[in-house]
Structure formats: C-alpha cells, structure tokens
C-alpha cells in the first residue's frame, strides 16, 4: 500500500487515543447491510432514492398525473433546468471566488471581478463551467475520479497550494459516458459522496470494491457467494420482465455493476435516475447537474456513425437536441405509452423504468458482450445462468449484444418527418462512445446551455497501449461541421497524427483559446474553451486495458491518484503556475464578454497550453513524441512524468504493510512517520 492511501486512512480515523482502529476492509462475520452498527455509516448515504413504486427493479404502471407526461421540443432548456440553474449559478459564486483567489493570478482581483459579474439576477457573464468524463471502463472511472477528487474542495489537501479544489463546487454541469457515466452515477447515487469516501469504503459494503470482479460478485460476510449474487441479479431482471417489459443483457450488466456503484442492499434495485431531482441538496443547486449520454442505433443499421442521434439522460429529462429527434421526455415517466408526444387516454403511465443502473448500463452497453463472454468462464456461476448466457450469445446477433431497449419508444409518432425513430415501437440505444465521441460533449456544447469552459477528461484507449490519441475530441469537432450539429459549435481540433506528433495527448491542451478566431452567427456565442486532459502516466501507468475485470485496491488508488496528479500537474510540480492557468481558462470567455483586459499571467498560460493551430506537417513535427521504436514500428509509449514523489513508498511503512494485513499497524507507523 502506498503512503498516500495510508494518509487518507489516517486522516479518516478518529484522533482520540482510545478510539478503536476501524478495520476498513476487513471481512467480519456480521449481518450484511446492517447500517446501524457500522462505524462509518454516516459517510455514504444514498442521494438518489429507491423511488421505483415497485420497491424493486421492476417498473410499475401508475395512474397518470393530472398534468399528463409529454414530449417537448428541444428548442429551449426545460423549465425545471432553468429554475435549477438560477439556484446553482448563484451557489457557484462563492466557491469560484475562493478558487480564483487561491489561484493567485498576479495583478488580478478575482473577488472584485466575480462580484462585478454576479451582482443582480443576470449571471450570464459569470463563468459557466462544465466537466466531461470520458468512457473507457474502469480506467475511465478511476482516472475521472482522480480529476473529480482534485477539483472537489472537500478532498483533504485539494485546496492547499497547487490544488484545484473548489473547481467542482464552481461547476454547473457534470457529464459522463460509459465508464465515466459509472463514476457520475456512483457519486449521485451515494449522496454526492467525495471520491475519498467512496475509496475508503464501508464495512460490509461492496462499494468501489473493484478487487472483486462483477463476475464473481461481492465478497461479503456469510450470505454472499457467486451463485447467490447471480440469482439475485437474475431475480431483479426477471421482475422487470414479469411486469411486462422487454429485458436484455443491458439489464443484467447494469444490475451487476450496481453492487459496486450503489451503496445500498443488493445494489439498490429501486434507485432511479430521476430521483436525483428530488434530493434536497441537488434541488437546492448544491451540486452540478449530472448528465449521461447514449447513442441511437437506427433501425436496421449495424454501425453507429457520427450522424447517429445522441441522447442524454438528466434528472429531469431524456432525449436529444439533435435536429432529428429534437425532443425530450420526462425521465421519470420513461416507458409510458407516448404517441405523437402525448400519452393518450388509452395509454398507460409507467414509473420506475429509469433505474439508475439501466441508465448507466445503457451508456456503457459496449461492455455487454464482455459480460456475456466472460460469465461462462467464472467459477461459481450457476449452470442455468451459463446456459442462458450461451443461449443469448447464440440468439442475439453479435452486433446486437450492445443494445438497450427503450420500449415503448417515447418518441413514437414524434416529428415523423425528421425523426429516424418516429416509426419504431422500440428505441434502441447503445454505448455513448460508439460514434467515436467518447467524451460526453454534446450536452455541453448546446448553445442554450451557454457553457464557457469544458474540462474534458479523456481516458480513451486509442493507441496500442491504451492511451488516448485525440480521436474522441476530433470526432466532436468533425460532427460540429455537419448538418446534425444544429447550431452547436466546437473549437477546431487537429487529427490524431497531430496529437501524437505534437504531444497534445500527453499534456493538458487548451482548444479554442482565441474567441476572435470564430465567426459567430448573429446573437450567437462563441464555442466553449476546451481544456483537454488526456490520461497520461504521471505517477503510475494508468493505461490498464479496458476489459480488465478487477483491480487490487492499491492499483485502484494509484490510478485515482494519477488522475489527481494530472489534474494538478503534480500539485504544481510540473508547472508551478498550473492552478492559475486553470483559473485563466475558467475566466477566459467571461473576460472577453466583459471586454476586460486579459491578465499577463493568462497570456503566458495561453501561450503555453493553447493549441497553436498548427498540424504536425505545418509544425514540422513528423514523428510520434515519446515513442519507443519496437519491432512493430513506432508506438506511443510515454514514461512517468513524476518520478520520485516525496514520502511515497517510505520504506519502513510499506514493508510492514506488505507483510501484515492488520491496518492498525500501518496507522501507527504512518502516525510515527508523520511526526518525524
Ligand atoms: C448528504 O450529505 C449532506 C452533506 O454533504 C448532508 O447535509 C445530508 O444530510 C446528507 N443526506 C443524507 C440523506 O444523509
Ligand atoms: C435545430 O433543429 C430544429 C429542428 O430541425 C430546427 O427547428 C432549429 O431551427 C435548428 N436550430 C438551428 C440553430 O439550426
Ligand atoms: C403501451 O405499451 C405497451 C408496451 O409496449 C404495449 O404492449 C401496449 O399495447 C401499449 N398500449 C397502448 C394503448 O398504446
Ligand atoms: C473475458 O473474455 C475475453 C474475450 O473473450 C478474454 O480475452 C478474457 O480472458 C476473459 N476474461 C475473463 C476474466 O474470463
Ligand atoms: C406519425 O406517424 C404515425 C405512424 O407511425 C401516425 O400514426 C401519426 O398520425 C403520424 N403523425 C403525424 C402528425 O403525421
Ligand atoms: C488513434 O486512435 C484510433 C482509435 O480510436 C485509431 O483508429 C487510430 O489509428 C489512431 N491513430 C494513430 C495515428 O495511431
Ligand atoms: C498532491 O497532493 C495530493 C493531496 O495532498 C497528494 O495525495 C499527492 O500525492 C500529491 N502529488 C504529488 C505529485 O506530490
Ligand atoms: C482558427 O480557425 C481556423 C478556421 O476554422 C482553423 O483552421 C484554425 O485551426 C483555428 N486556429 C486555432 C488556433 O484554433
Ligand atoms: C502502458 O504503457 C506503457 C508505455 O507507456 C507500456 O509499456 C505498457 O505496456 C502499457 N501497459 C498496458 C497494460 O498496456
């Protein structure tokens, strides 16, 4: 175990001398889910709610509300989102002042500036911040978690010198896709928990226990074995089928993941995505607006292309801004009998279909096949399940494994002329990254949302060694030049060859820095500035393959820390001005709108981090940076950016930890270490 993990442990423990050490990861014989007796039960509390009326995974037919659910045109923000924004934007003012003050931009009075753009009710000049966390399985979850952890002022140490803590508290939107969607969902399903709390876990809970693969299931005292776990999952899915709804491999996939992502008995089968909207904290605007992304695979098509309709799920609505489907359904009433945008009097209303696990399972449906293929080789999986999986594999066309069915289709008979899914009873959604846009940017570049800056955390596995090469970002730029863009704007992004040759995939790069480089339609806004944060090796090799099913907790923590160090450039080790450069990116569009002079520090930052517009050929950089030439030719093989982190691997501590499973010993050693 590394020292940082120990420190986290130390910080989390009561400081009284006689406090009993808490065996955090010990497995003791105790009834599971006995929240009352677990010492840290106050830490992870459900935020989303088990509000499916069935009390379980099954959706239920309910009486339609007086105000019958409808589909609306995507020509405005929803009223619910607008009302929520009014609260959230105000709540970002103070954290933003604190964050910008800590960033210490010389000769710039951050407090006075933010106050000047936030007095009165019109907050349109206040920086509007978004964070997007890419797909890439557990790698994306962990690397993304490192960024969120660094940005969260509640993380111990994050507001010290060199930290970017408070950025999350200043953020309006937080989007996730596939593995990034697991991260976002897990945070919101657990009372907006901090990453360190999720890492720390809880006694008798399988939350974030990535060392036990979802194939084997949680290793909990007494009751839990693999067969029982799969029987539970199967029973949950069966209850949905019995209630009259189509099920697919996505249901199993989402349920299995939930045991790791939702800290509630049996992975919280009744938790819904829409219930996030009813949480007091969220509805008071005290956390960013979570959004997950999935793609439509049009009927009869096998491949998902850049012109596929992109769907988003948010706590209020599910739908698309694209000029194709161009409408939104209330998330809470998904699977009601919508037809032509309304639920006719003959149609029924349904609630509980928007299971949070079905939503994040949909966004990550690319992994369905992984589940199917591997389940058959795991010991302890009951025979009947293997049989079922094998049958599914044979029945389902391989190309269809990844589908999540939304039946009845909310957009049936909706905009018949333009909507490719207007005439199907079943809306097929697939993994949000299948169109190559592996960073969930579409929801954030909608002009209506007026986002100024996007922190785009990219954990894509593009290269041979599972590092990103800019393909995801480029895909969104390419899409912004096609008719489906429908008014969305995205800054120019070069091709993958340029990313590799110029090292843009190896360090933070800003895109779209100069707003004067854009021709903006009358009344329109310039596209957001994009702060691209590619997964790269800072303090550990975080390029684990996408289909690795389990991770020792030490490796999980190392990858999260690597993401943290990417977000902070090693707390300033690599660039002592990094925090102020992050602050400059936050301020940039707002300064332009206000006609305020750009501080000298920001000009320096932009010179250093902005893509200069040159391609590899134009810049004369032709070969891949950081290559190690091997038998297979040139390969991008970056090496660690930060070698010896002071204090890390302090010999005595790690030796003892290595030999002894008794955590309290480590704690004592770490305490002594701290005092020296
Ligand atoms: C969730 O966390 C907040 C603090 O972050 C706390 O005020 C609230 O009581 C928690 N919710 C529940 C249900 O415990
Ligand atoms: C977006 O698409 C809708 C539906 O086709 C259309 O009405 C609207 O004018 C488009 N918006 C822009 C900015 O092109
Ligand atoms: C409502 O949807 C269900 C499921 O697709 C379908 O079986 C039923 O016929 C629909 N009812 C009406 C009135 O559209
Ligand atoms: C999962 O399936 C893949 C592809 O079939 C295989 O390479 C891998 O070894 C399997 N993993 C496990 C844990 O069975
Ligand atoms: C749209 O198409 C459906 C059939 O799929 C049809 O029943 C409906 O009347 C059409 N709506 C309009 C407005 O043309
Ligand atoms: C970049 O990654 C994509 C996969 O996302 C791959 O198809 C492409 O060949 C890679 N580019 C280079 C130059 O290696
Ligand atoms: C940066 O600070 C965090 C939090 O204090 C710490 O865990 C991490 O090890 C530091 N990184 C480096 C490179 O020193
Ligand atoms: C400026 O805009 C042009 C035209 O879209 C583009 O080719 C160029 O790359 C942009 N420059 C930068 C630095 O983004
Ligand atoms: C991770 O990347 C390094 C090069 O940067 C490479 O040597 C190593 O094999 C990669 N690991 C995996 C699991 O791909």
From TrEMBL:
Residues 63-616 form the PLA2c domain. Residues 1-19 form the signal peptide. Pfam families: PLA2_B. The keyword Lipid metabolism applies. GO terms for molecular function: phosphatidylcholine lysophospholipase activity; phospholipase A2 activity. GO terms for cellular component: cytosol; endoplasmic reticulum. GO terms for biological process: glycerophospholipid catabolic process. It catalyses: a 1-acyl-sn-glycero-3-phosphocholine + H2O = sn-glycerol 3-phosphocholine + a fatty acid + H(+). InterPro entries: Acyl_Trfase/lysoPLipase, LysoPLipase_cat_dom. Keywords: Glycoprotein, Hydrolase, Lipid degradation, Lipid metabolism, Signal. Its EC number is 3.1.1.5. PANTHER family: CYTOSOLIC PHOSPHOLIPASE A2 (PTHR10728), LYSOPHOSPHOLIPASE 1-RELATED (PTHR10728:SF33). Belongs to the lysophospholipase family. This is Lysophospholipase. It comes from Chaetomium thermophilum (strain DSM 1495 / CBS 144.50 / IMI 039719) (Thermochaetoides thermophila). The lineage of its organism: Eukaryota, Fungi, Dikarya, Ascomycota, Pezizomycotina.
